[in-house]
Specification:
Order of helices and strands: HEHHHE
Strand order of the largest sheet: 1-2
Strand content: 25-35%
Largest sheet: 2 strands, antiparallel
Radius of gyration: 19 Å
Shape: elongated
Helix content: 40-55%
């Protein structure tokens, strides 16, 4: 996925003709979420926010129960990418 995004973004920057050589950096990191924090995170996703309240409540209850069984923390890996280029 990172390679695809890199190729597309560098291609767009190069095609603009406005910038010189593009430098690219990848910064992987992991976020750890408690049950409550993870459910709060889910509320920020539009597909969850659009669920009927009763359906969302039963879904969140099932998710909370699964997290609490083990390991009690949800770890999600993320990748931040930086594209750096000087104006031509």
């Amino acid at each position: 996925m990172v390679a695809v995004v890199r190729r597309e973004m560098v291609g767009e920057i190069d095609a603009s003709g406005l910038y010189g050589t593009v430098a690219f950096r990848v910064y992987p990191w992991t976020a750890s979420y408690t049950t409550a924090r993870y459910l709060d995170l889910l509320d920020t996703y539009s597909d969850h926010a659009l669920l009927a309240p009763a359906h969302r409540a039963s879904l969140y209850q099932a998710i909370a129960e699964a997290i609490e069984r083990a390991p009690r923390v949800v770890e999600i890996p993320y990748v931040s990418m930086a594209f750096l280029a000087r104006r031509a």
